[in-house]
Write a structure and sequence with these properties.
The chain is mainly alpha-helical and 404 residues long. It has one domain (7-186, 204-403): Growth Hormone, Chain: A (Up-down Bundle). The protein is 79% helix and 0% strand. The protein has 19 helices and no strands. The chain has helices at 7-21, 27-30, 32-39, 43-67, 73-94, 98-113, 116-124, 129-161, 163-184, 203-206, 209-241, 254-262, 264-279, 281-299, 307-322, 325-335, 341-370, 376-391, 393-403. The longest helix is centred in the middle third of the chain and has 33 residues, at 129-161. The chain is globular and about 60 Å long. The chain starts with 6 loop residues before the first helix and ends with a helix.
């Protein structure tokens, strides 16, 4: 079978594959209110299950992403898709409470660790310059498309056939993604010659000062973004209890609204990257990071506003969060040596998803301590816990320039 060579065709293939590979990604958080009720989970326990997928991601990504410098990234992608399918199928068949859910969510996360960044490397290995930056932007943006697909499909399937059906879909999606990438994409780039450091020796990556700043920025971005994704449906469910019956927005399910919010991300991610190419990456990254932090600090306190206003503020916050996503990733890839691109992605993802692991748990703890998920004050403080770093971004920038 002939392989596509145009940037548009390859970007399209990888974006579709990415979306299917994430079929199980948001299934648990979409159905979180139901699981809390059925299994008697506290907010802290629910946050831990929601975040443990990132622990799986962190465990897998250093090895699997780094291996793409030495092994065709499509092969890594294939194995990881099978792992995601195994985790989702296991959840569908055997999950029955906190510990089993925790275990299978970990496996699902590990599978994502071998698809997201190795998939991006498969794509960017074929491109350079502005084509690479734009392809990266669309790929990063499609994380939101994949999240939305997972939310919509999981919510609909669970409503029609029960929650286990949602995880069956989560098992099928990665298998479709594996076929697309391995049959339609050219081989990934591997080193032309072996270099004198071990697979997990990331010192050459960390020695690149410019890349380090993008990695730190991505960690702060991930802390806010993935915590919002983990608790979005639960917050919208709470807000719906405060709405008068019959309002237009309140007629939609929380899962449907969350999916619609997620769709704000792709457009803003691509737009942010285009703005960064025009006005400078650093400037655009700090603008979006600060703005999203400010909105997050007030978001939880808006639960009692009219449903349309809550939805609009959620969309605004989500769009601002995604405004720096592609710019951060494109900057990190563009500043890394081509032979170290897989290793750089390993470090980038590991540190970013470490923050993503901590965020949902911290959010749940704050929610419990501040009064529980029926308290507007508690939701306000919980959202402020993820917005504070964005608010402090200008201080970090000032200290950076002062120390130069």
């Amino acid at each position: 079978m002939s392989k596509p060579r145009s940037a548009v065709a390859m970007t399209f293939i990888m974006c579709v594959a990415e979306s299917f590979s994430m079929a199980a990604f948001a299934a648990f958080v979409t159905l979180l209110p139901s699981f809390q009720k059925a299994w008697g989970l506290s907010n802290t326990e629910a946050g831990l299950i929601g975040g443990i997928a990132f622990a799986g991601y962190m465990t897998a990504v250093p090895v699997l992403s780094a291996l793409t410098d030495r092994i065709d990234s499509r092969r890594i992608y294939l194995g990881a898709c099978c792992l995601s399918a195994l985790g989702a199928a296991g959840f569908a068949l055997y999950a029955q409470g906190f510990w089993t859910a925790l275990a299978f969510q970990f496996v699902i996360g590990a599978g994502l660790g071998g698809t997201y960044m190795p998939g991006l490397k498969t794509l960017t290995d074929q491109l350079e310059g502005s084509k690479q930056a734009r392809a990266t932007a669309f790929y990063a943006a499609c994380f939101g498309v994949g999240s939305s697909l997972s939310i919509v499909a999981s919510g609909w399937l669970a409503a029609q056939y029960g929650w286990r059906a949602a995880f069956v879909f989560g098992a099928v999606g990665p298998l479709i993604a594996a076929m697309l990438v391995n049959l339609l994409m050219p081989p990934g780039r591997t080193r032309t010659q072996e270099v004198g450091h071990a697979l997990l020796d990331f010192r050459p990556v960390l020695a690149n000062r410019t890349t380090r700043y993008y990695i730190l920025g991505y960690a702060l971005h991930s802390y806010e973004l993935f915590t919002q994704r983990a608790w979005m449906v639960a917050f919208l469910t709470f807000s719906a209890t405060l709405q008068p019956a019959g309002t237009a927005v309140a007629a939609f399910s929380a899962a449907t609204l969350a999916a619609m919010v997620n769709l704000c991300g792709p457009l803003m991610s691509v737009t942010g990257n285009e703005l960064s190419l025009r006005f400078g990456r650093e400037r655009i990254i700090f603008v979006f990071m600060t703005a999203s932090g400010l909105v997050a600090c007030g978001l939880g306190f808006t639960a009692g506003l009219p449903a349309a206003a809550v939805f609009a503020i959620m969309c605004l916050h989500y769009g601002l969060m995604l405004g720096d996503s592609a710019a951060l990733t494109a900057g990190a890839i563009g500043t890394a040596h081509p032979d170290q691109r897989g290793a750089m992605m390993a470090v980038y993802s590991f540190i970013g998803f470490s923050a993503a692991l901590v965020g949902p748990l911290v959010f749940g703890v704050v929610l419990d301590i501040a009064g529980g998920n029926r308290s507007t004050l508690a939701w306000g403080l919980a959202y402020a816990s993820i917005g504070v770093f964005g608010v402090l971004a200008p201080v970090a920038r000032w200290l950076h320039y002062r120390n130069q």
